[in-house]
Amino acid sequence: MEESIKWIVNPKARNEDNIKRPGPDFLGGKAAAETRNFMESFPQYEVTPLRNLGRLAAYTGIAGIYVKDESYRFGLNSFKVLGGGHAIGRYLAGKLNLSPLNFSYAKLRSDEAREKLGEITFTSATDGNHGRGVAWAARQLGHRAVINMPKGSSPIRLEHITATGAEGYITDVNYDETVRITAENANKNGWVVIQDTAWEGYEDIPNWIIQGYTVMADEAYKQIQQYGFNRPTHIFIQAGVGSLAAAVLGFFASMFNNIRPVTVIVEPDKADCFYKSALAGDGIPRYVTGDLDTIMAGLACGEPNPFAWDILKDMADMFISCPDYISAKGMRILGNPLSGDTRVISGESGAVTTGMLVELLLNEELAEAREGLKLDQDSRVLVFSTEGDTDPEMYRKIVWDGAYPVPGKSHI
Predict the structure, then answer these.
(1) Does domain 81-201 have CATH number 3.40.50.1100?
(2) Active site residue 204
(3) From the candidates 68, 69, 127, 276, which is the catalytic residue?
(4) For the chain, what are the domain ranges?
(5) Is the per-residue pLDDT at 19 higher than 90?
(6) Would you identify the CATH topology of the domain 6-79+206-399?
């Protein structure tokens, strides 16, 4: 059976009620600035680049394509540390009775803080990037981490986690089951779970993780203005459990309200819980079960974060479910740019939005979706390359050897 791209327009996103609905306060400009102040207090903090792919935009017939390149984030090759690092910081600040306006890397690392807190063990389930960020942040702030990965995870990503000094394990179950095992172990051992999905009784930390991702959105917003315009017309953002997508959409909705950018949620077809939830049309989230076997390991999540779903179901304009070859195409486009554009090394979960955008613009079979989004010569599109080559071997297989080619097109 041939793989296909599936999409659905969300008719609620621009109705009278939802077009006036502001983004959540905890994802707005003021909260993002407070979050960014904490992340900036880490000595390693630097703003990641926003690449202007002007030649690619001209080639595909739109005004601009801008790629936020998270391969530079804290030397960890992924944006994920923003969420995990912020959540750990907020947790420690709470234990020290520090307000969100008055905590920093230096205060959390101080001898006084260590004396009060002792050594705390943080734990998480991950495909690799989130766990690496949690492990790194825990170590930077003087604590311990135990990280679990689902079956089929890349051994290289596990090595990156254990290189931080954390304990790391690959389980024999899928991601969602690994989350449950992690929570059970934490409960037995008195550890603190840092997970970007929520369940009853576990809500603050997932929201702090979502809030951490607004740092990236806030940076991109300010960088876009340096190119001479105020906001993108469109945002393409990938979804796993949906925390990143909720953070980005929530931030831009807070900044622009009824003129917020048209937002497209992109998922792998083997883990397309948001697409299936939108397709059902009743506001109830749907789950995807099984192995979730996609090269987009960072998006291989079958259960939506309920907080993320609450934002996306009312405010996202389109949900797209796509095969792995779309991600592979995006990796090759970014890694082999048109003359004059900057190269972006983007991994499987990072490149899917670029691949999907280009496919929408050039594939006439998707003209209806393109027209529904009003993608035209005046469009300026923001995408987030959320990771670099976090699995170098897979990166080479795709970019060098042509793995996961576009069906019907020769890669010789």
Answers:
(1) yes
(2) no
(3) 127
(4) 6-79+206-399, 81-201
(5) no
(6) Rossmann fold (3.40.50)
